[in-house]
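QA checklist item 7 of 12: single-chain prediction sanity check.
[x] sequence parsed
[x] length recorded as 139
[x] structure emitted
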Amino acid sequence: MPALPSVMQRRVLVVDDDRGVRAIVGDQLRQLGFEIVEAGDGEACLAFLEPAASASPLHGVVLDLRLSMPDGHAVLRALRQRDATIPVIIMSELADIGRVRDAMKLGAQEYLVKPFDLELLRTKCLRVFLGTIEQDVTC
């Protein structure tokens, strides 16, 4: 069985139509040692999953549920059809908690409610993308 990639070899896709959110999330994950790629909408996200898109696989996705078409739910469904193994953390506002529940049923491993604490972001990303066991942190 091949060894798991180290954090420096792990590539995470950050998907949000807000450039500022992508920058914040990306900066935090870079500080942890992840390689970050970004997408500003659902179509760009799905393009990263195409075999010809890159020689480097994705090891995780941080996905906003409120995207322009296709929305985050549609992206998550398509992502699960293409690769059910990629860990996904979804982001949404508190007003969308029902949508968060639905996304968890679609296979998201974790969620963040905006605005979120940066330490919570880091903890959840380490746990989901690396499998590290941290103390339980709740939203």
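[x] summary fact logged: The two ends are 35 Å apart (CA to CA).
[ ] second reviewer sign-off
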